[in-house]
Hints:
Layout: H1 8-25, E1 35-39, E2 43-46, E3 49-53, H2 66-79, H3 87-91, H4 94-106, E4 111-115, H5 118-129, E5 135-139, H6 144-153, E6 156-160, H7 165-173, E7 181-186, H8 198-208, E8 211-215, H9 230-234, E9 242-246, E10 256-260, H10 262-271, H11 273-276, H12 283-298, H13 301-320, E11 331-337, H14 339-351, E12 354-355, E13 358-359, E14 369-374, H15 381-398
Parallel strand pairs: 3-12, 5-6, 5-7, 7-8, 8-9
Antiparallel strand pairs: 1-2, 2-3, 4-10, 9-10, 11-14, 13-14
Helix pairs in contact: 2-12, 4-12, 5-6, 7-8, 13-15, 14-15
Amino acid sequence: MDFRSDDGITRRMAMLKQRVQAARDQDFYFYNQPVEEVLGGSKVIVNGREMGMYASYSYLGLIGHPRINAAAKAAVDKFGTGTHGVRSLAGTLTIHRELEETIADFKHAEDAVTFTSGYVTNLTVITTLLGRGDYVLCDKLNHASIVDGCMMSGAEFRRFKHNDMLDLEKRLQQIPDGATRLVVADAVFSMDGDVIDLPRVVELCRKYGAYLMMDEAHSVGVLGKTGRGIEEYFDLWGSVDIKMGTLSKTIPSVGGYVAGKKELIDFLRHGSRAYIFSAALPPAQAAAANEAFKVILDEPWRIEKLNANTQQFIQGLKGLGFDTMLTTTAIVPVLCGTDERAFALTQLAQRNNVFVLPVVSPAVPEGLSRLRATVLASHEPDEIKRAMDIIGQAGRELGII
């Protein structure tokens, strides 16, 4: 018998294996399915079948855009497929600085810095800026990367109720005078699709002397007339101290960034462990991201179409009787209740070539399992109608509506 056969790690692995196997046994395991081909942004080939894609973060349909593909290919021809090391030493290329200048301009900031993943960006920014004796206040529904960064920072970590400004003020009032304080929240919440009350958050941060960090992973390309995000959406340019975002959702690349004052960015370049000890973004990915920001500004029709598609999808699902919670964005939760109902609704949708995925406990609280469907600018109205018809029929069969 292995002397470690009954330790905590073994037990946790066994419990997860059992849960995964139970899902497989019921044909309820829908994760890690390889996409064999992407067709025009809104369709994919999965398991040999053409399916409408309603689980993508490519909100503006930029995956496969010819200008972005061409920029990536040109970067490979010029720089190769990798870099010479970490950014601080031999890894910085001209395309990295060009990308950061593009981001700074796009976000109306003085400067920007990029990292190799969005998850790492939140971890490194929060842990670099904060330490023992500081305070960080976090919306209860913030992304796991924010939560992990808060916990790892060593700062006093306190959560406030989701988008509840009275609770946020109560938490701010509890912080001792003179202590450094940071408020951090998603701009658009990744599971619910609703938007943070930025005007009130800004007001409270100014009142209580707190820094403000916004995670714009799901708001760039989605919020604002030109897709620049939450400050544009609320016409509050300059109100956010730390503008964080990803390069792997609306921007069809990989990585993360922070934009802000030059002093902040310079500090992160010299103090962030993820910057100092991680290899630089590959040239093709940096070039693709750089071109994508330019395409967003050059093709504003994509944002207009995304907004129209979002309204069609949300209102259509509501009209069928589904609870889409408080979403106003392209992230559309389709509330199912139990894990089993979410799995069953996914199964019926995928069997009819609508690629959606379930979000179940513990990722969301028990009783709030759902499909987290997304709509894209590349969807056509008749495609959205067909997807809603299929989801609606499945919902009726399962007694969800």
